[in-house]
Amino acid sequence: MPTSPWLTLRQAREALGTGQPDEAHRLLEPLVAEGYRKAVRLTRDVAKAYRARAERVLRADQPEPAWRDLLAAETLNTGDAGLTDLRTTLTRLGLAECRAALEAGRPVHVIETAARLADRGVRHPDLPVMREVAGEWILASEQADRGDFLLAKDTLGRARARAVSVPTTGLDQFLATLDRRHERFRIAVGNLNDACDAGRWGDALRLADAVVAAAPDHRDARDHRARAWAALQSPAAPAAETPAEWAAPDETVPLILAGADGPLRRPAPRAGGGGRAKGNGEDAAVTKTWTGVPSQSGGPSDPGADTTPAPLPKRFLLWIDGAGQFLVCMNPRVTFGQAGAGGPIDIPVHAELARLHAEVFRDGEGYVLESANDAQVNGAATSRAVLRTGDRISLGPSCQLVFHRPVPISPSARLEIASGHRLSVAVDGVLLMAEALILGPGPQVHAALPDAPGNVVLYRSKDGLGVRCPGAFSIDNRPCRDRAPLPLPSVVATDTFTFAVEPVGPRL
């Protein structure tokens, strides 16, 4: 039996009284369509309730819910002048967000935010300019990753010329970084061809890694590296001897390291009752091309080893024999998005997510979740929330993660995927590395290393990654003691445990 208009109006007023303008809107919509004048008059109160709620959440620094209420109120066509003022305020905040992202070097965020503003009817002369600049920026980044640095600089030049009314600090910083990458690429790629022609495969492998560090998607460097690996697996492969004039410049640029083609190498299994992992052909090849420096505690050294420090990677994979595998993110800000959707997403998940769905960053408050899309923390919808250990994060309709800070004195954290979704590489969790990661047998560790007699620490330094392990251990079958630089890729082994680290390319 249909509900009478009188009862529907009463229910709508009750919904307004309890602060539910969306429920009142739903109830009144059929009556408004049929021309009931009382329902039309009541929609004015609904619009005011929408506006009041939007202003309230905006004061709490939540612009996304405010936008939803504004758009819902505007569909009522009540002519409320306060809605115009609210739209002006939200537009100004959205444009400020775009400018801040452009200045901070986040062009993907600029495009996402500008697209949302355009979908909401925002018209501003700076908006298409910022979208074009961000698009050219992303294109230039992809061109540089392929090794087309001159083309990338030309693309950035066009973007810089368009950026008359928008901030260019981030663009100028990226261009300066591009110049340094180009110089490193130019030196390494010429010497790489010479090394391959002369059959110096150890040198070719290191130089190919240097080229890939500057241009992760450079096809020829990947091909040369595959040839070098194949040649070094041969028992007759010569040892690497890099001339001093081939050394890269002293300046270390924090670039993304790309992984080798093919499947990621797991740690070799321990033999029998927990003996040290035996080196296979691949381990032997790694030994010949070890690029670290001798242990600071006086471990054996190789006078022929290359002591040039490797730049810190943006991400790497940690494989712990018999305990699990983890994606380690070293940036203070990481992004979540749909796997396969393209774009520089740090943690791509095979789930119903937006291309850039959410971000988690580390600051003075701890870890903060930000999302302009569907996100919840412990069941409560949010666009920004400070994370505490044990918090359950929901992204989209079904993806769930659990946040942990298992070591109170360490700012590093761990994310567990609780909903069964997977990343592009099968991992047991994501580690957000600040200055160090603690591996060990106890409960207060970032990742379990069950057979270790004590805690093992992976740490970052000005020279790159390092490992601190009490007593004797080996890196790619090279003896070390107490601590040593940790090149990528490499295998760390003792009599009781084995783990490996592998670089990750710009896209999983």
Automatic annotation (TrEMBL):
<dbReference type="InterPro" id="IPR008984">
    <property type="entry name" value="SMAD_FHA_dom_sf"/>
</dbReference>
<dbReference type="InterPro" id="IPR011990">
    <property type="entry name" value="TPR-like_helical_dom_sf"/>
</dbReference>
<protein>
    <recommendedName>
        <fullName>FHA domain-containing protein</fullName>
    </recommendedName>
</protein>
<feature type="region of interest" description="Disordered">
    <location>
        <begin position="260"/>
        <end position="310"/>
    </location>
</feature>
<feature type="compositionally biased region" description="Polar residues">
    <location>
        <begin position="288"/>
        <end position="299"/>
    </location>
</feature>
